[in-house]
Amino acid sequence: MQTRLKISLGFFMFLQYFVWGAWYVSMATYLSRTLNFGGEQIGLAYGAFAIGAMVSPFFVGLIADRYFPSEKILAFLALLGGALLFVLSKLTAFSSFYPVLIIYCATYVPTLALITSLSLHHLANPKRDLPLVKALTAVGWIASGVAVSVIFEAEQSAVQFQIAGATSILLGLFSLTLPHTPPKKTGKDVRIGEILGLDALALLKKPSFAIFIVCMFLICIPLYFYFVNMNLYVTELGWKYSVAKMSLAQVSDIIFLILLPVMLRYFGYKKTIFIGILAWAARYFLLSGSVDMISMQTLFVYTAILLHGVCYDFLFITGQLYVDDEANERIRGAAQGLIAFILWGVGAFVGTQLAGLSLSSHTYDAPVAGFAHDWKGIWIYPAWGAVAVLVIFMIFFRDKRSETEAPKIKKV
């Protein structure tokens, strides 16, 4: 009987991911080819999102959970974010662009946690309904790719930020229609350890959990080479409507999210995560091979894109479920906070910086065969990095439990 609520939450998440997808995929191409920023600057720009992820727990824990209703915080952040995106579209110097981008990301990232918390508060059966609502996030990302690539042809222009800004303002206004959600911890003292998930550090006493955390951090280093560099690569390949074509990754995401419970039922955590890490290695070897094997280039690149569902769902969603199963009720929230801080905060920051440095160090003085960058050199390092993480995980991780049923799926 909650059809209206689910439609409302789904539309919010559609708009939320439309905003994100409108600029995040093609920003490197815009910064490189239009603003002439260097690889290190592009890496720093993508690292702004990681800084936002590191700031987000403090904002949610110290302010949102204690003083203001969630729907009003979401409205304020989205409206402010929309204004900042329009400001970003006018900035052409890195010295001004970068700090404004950091401030923008600090307004956007908290909305991801806040809408999940609001949804869990109001949905009668969140284990059943939240994944269905979350499916609209992939649709929003796909729609933004079509809008930026096909409708506005804005992959190399500041219009992408204006599209995101206008949608963010719409998102802010729509937030005011969400059900009232009062602050959860009014008048309560909140410890920094609770906010950062430090209460979950006790889980590191378990050798397998410690190995899992180390591997999740290490895989973030090669992982962000894809997010920072992929659109610029296919642009140099001469692809038209590249953002729209890259959104096929989200189609793959939906398919493999549906298949994930089956994988976990029959293979358990270790084999499923193993396949996820293996998919990252395969993705980078395909991209590296696509540079030289011209006859197979299109096939290799599309296959690398379509591997996204395996790369993301079998690694990150499975990882979140593993953490949820390892933690008891008292520290479950802290454990999810810890893994989010590592994956989208510290891990993302390190990965994006190294991806930017690699892009910078593999830039040709003059174009070679139409390429401004040595893409084979850029892709081969994360390929072998993923293999190294795969070997560490395979040897040292132990999952002693026997899976009798598929764990619940939670995508955050």
Ordered list of secondary-structure elements with their pairings:
Layout lengths: L2 H22 L2 H7 L5 H26 L5 H19 L5 H29 L3 H26 L7 H17 L16 H5 L10 H30 L5 H5 L1 H45 L4 H10 L1 H19 L5 H30 L1 E6 L2 E3 L1 H22 L16
Helix pairs in contact: 1-5, 1-6, 1-7, 2-3, 2-9, 3-5, 3-14, 4-5, 4-7, 6-11, 9-14, 9-15, 11-12, 11-13, 11-15, 13-14
Structural class: mainly alpha
Radius of gyration: 21 Å
How many structural domains are formed by the residues? 2
Q: What CATH architecture label of the largest domain applies?
A: Up-down Bundle
Helicity level: over 70%
Beta-strand portion reads: under 5%
Question: DSSP helix count?
Answer: 15
pLDDT < 50 stretches: 402-406
Rounded mean pLDDT is 87
The main pleated sheet reads as: 2 strands, antiparallel
How many beta-strand runs?
2
CATH class of the largest domain: Mainly Alpha
Strand order of the largest sheet: 1-2
Q: What spatial form do the alpha-carbon principal axes imply? A: globular
Tell me what you see in this structure.
With 412 residues, this protein is mostly helical. The protein folds into 2 domains: 1-181, Up-down Bundle (Growth Hormone, Chain: A), CATH 1.20.1250.20; 199-412, Growth Hormone, Chain: A. Helix content is 76%, strand content 2%. The protein is built from 15 helices and 2 strands. It has helices at 3-24, 27-33, 39-64, 70-88, 94-122, 126-151, 159-175, 192-196, 207-236, 242-246, 248-292, 297-306, 308-326, 332-361, 375-396; strands at residues 363-368, 371-373. A two-stranded antiparallel sheet has the order 1-2. Helix 2 (27-33) packs across helix 9 (207-236). The chain is globular and about 60 Å long. The chain starts with a helix and ends in a 16-residue tail after the last helix.
